[in-house]
Amino acid sequence: MNPPMAPVALTSQEMKDLPAIRDAGRSRHAGPTARDFAEAIVGEDRRAFYIDEENRGRGTASTAEADKGGRTYAVRTRADLLVVDSDSADPGPVTQLFGEVLAGGFGPVLTESGRPGHRHLLGVLPPDAMARFRGRAAELGAGDDRTGRSIRPPLAPHRLGLPTRILHPDTPHKALDALQRR
Rounded to two decimals, what is the model's pTM? Predict the structure, then answer.
């Protein structure tokens, strides 16, 4: 008997290549999909926003519909999620913030968001910690504070087809669990 397969983190390109299999529920890959992450982090409006190659909005859809066909999309996040979008080639400041959030006893998720060095940091935080770490993100210059605003969910396709992946925690299942409401 073969041992069970470990969960596989899919890159955004792999997600684009497998929509028919994924949507039919017959994925040969174990683990959460971009849609699972979108549904975990989306705010009250429960909508996704399509993004074109120029990073402009191109309509809305449900998270389920947005995830079909490999199009790039973002969702407006829940208010209890710290969300930082670092578009710097130097991941130092956002990595520093990630370490501080982790040391604070919280379970942040850190992803490579496409271009070299670019990162997304997401973490469920109580209000007092949220204020502290949003301030800390600004002090460090860790990136754009996207808390309560839109961001691409982990594993969602990049607008230019660049690879994305989860850096922490070590499996997509753990990352999805870390983003659940507390």
Answer: 0.80
